[in-house]
Amino acid sequence: MTDSSAVSSSKPGALAGFIPGIVLVAVITASAYGLRNLPFVSSLSPMITAIFLGMVFGNLVGFSSSAEAGISIAGKKLLRLAVALLGLQLTFAQLASIGINGLMLAAVIVVSTLLFTVWMGRLLGVDRKLSLLLAAGTAICGASAIAGANAVTRARDEDVSYAVACVTVFGTIAMFLYPFLNILLGNDPQSYGLWVGLTIHEVAQVVGAGFQGGEAAGQVAIVSKLARVMMLAPIVIALALHVARSEHSAAGRPALTQVVPFFIVGFVSLVVLNSWGLVPEQLRGSIIAMTPVLLTAAMAALGLGTSFTKLKQRGLLPLLLSFIASLYIATAGLLLVNLAQ
Fold first, then answer.
1. How far is CA 70 from CA 25, 78, 95, 165, in A?
2. What is the pLDDT of residues 84-96, one digit of tens each?
3. In which element (H, E) is residue 282 found?
4. Are 83 and 267 in contact (CB under 8 A)?
5. What is the pTM of this model?
6. C-alpha angle with apex 106: 101 to 109, nearest 5 degrees?
7. Which of 32, 147, 280, 330 is surrounded by the fewest CB atoms within 10 Å?
8. CB of 331 closer than 8 Å to CB of 101
9. DSSP string covering 112-181
10. Alpha-carbon distance 143 to 283, whole Å?
11. Phi/psi of residue 201, each to 5°?
C-alpha cells in the first residue's frame, strides 16, 4: 500500500531542490542590474552583463551540483516564458506606422541575413546550431532572438554564450560607428533611422544610435526595429520546423508542438491581445517591467553553464562569421533603404 503522506511530502522536497540554483541565478541577475551604474557597463543590456557574470562565476568560482536543477530550469523554462511575454511590447499599430514599404524592407533584410549567415557558416565550417544562433541574433534582435532560437535548436550553452558575445561586440561597434558614417553618407533622419532600426542588433543599441540622428530618426529606428522583433515568431517556427524535420526524418512527420512551440503561440497571442487593448494597462506595465528581468535571469543561467575551455574550442571562425554577417546586414540594409527612397 502507498503511503500518501510520503508522496505529498516529496513535492516540497522536489521544489526545495531548485532553490540553490535559483538563488544563485537571482544574485547574478541583481548584480547585472547593479553594475549598470558603471560608465561602460551602463551602455550594455543587463542580459549581456548577466551572461558574462555567469560565465566568470561558473568558471572561476564554481557551484555545487545541488544548484544544477535550479540553474537548468532558469535557463530553459524561464527563457521560454520571457520570450513569450515579449509579445506585450508589440502592437500591429506600431508596425503599421512605418508603412508597407518599411515592413517589406524588414522582412527582406531579416530573411536574407538569416539565409546568408547560415550559408556562410556552412562555407566556413561553423557548427550548424551555432550558425543558426548567430543568424538569428544578427538578423532579428540580438540576445533575445538568440534565446528564442536556442529554445528550439537546443544548442550547447557555450554556443549561446559565444553567439551573445559576438552580437554584443559588433552591435556595440555599430552603435558608435553609425552616427559617424551617416555624416559621410548624408542620409535624412527618416532614412538614417530606418537604416539603424533595420540593421543594428540589440534594441538598446538601436536606441543609442538612432537618437544620435535626432528625435525623428530615433522614433523611426525604434519602430523599424520592432518590425524585426515581430519576425521572431515566424522565424522561430521556421527554425523549429527545420530542426524537427532533420531530427525526426526517420521517425515520420513531427508533432505540431514540435513545429509551433507553445512559447511562440503565447508570444503571438499576447501581441494580438495587446493590439486589441484587452490587457489591463497596470498588468501590462508590470509584465513589461518584469520581462527583461526574466530574460536577464535566463542569460545568467546560460552563462553559469558555459565552460571557458569548451568556449575556446569553438575557435575564431564563428567570430569571423558574425563579423561577415554584421557587415552584410549593414550594407544590405543601407542599399535597400536608399533604393526604397
1. 8, 11, 38, 24
2. 888 888 888 877 7
3. helix 281-304
4. yes
5. 0.78
6. 120
7. 280
8. no
9. HHHHHHHHHHHHHT--HHHHHHHHHIIIIIHHHHHHHHHHHH---HHHHHHHHHHHHHHHHHHHHHHHHH
10. 25
11. -75, -65
Residue type, 221: A
Specify the residue for cell string 555599430.
174
Round to the nearest angstrom and report the end-to-end CA distance of the chain. 77
**pLDDT tens sequence across 277-330:** 999 999 999 999 999 899 899 889 988 988 888 778 888 999 999 999 999 999
Rounded to whole angstroms, how far apart are CA atoms 16 and 192? 52
Handedness of CA 252, 253, 259, 260 (dihedral sign): negative
84 residue type, one letter? A
Q: Quote the cell numbers at residue 130.
A: 551555432
CA nearest neighbour of 322 among 314, 48, 337: 314
Q: For residues 275 and 95, what is the distance between their CA atoms, to the nearest angstrom?
A: 11
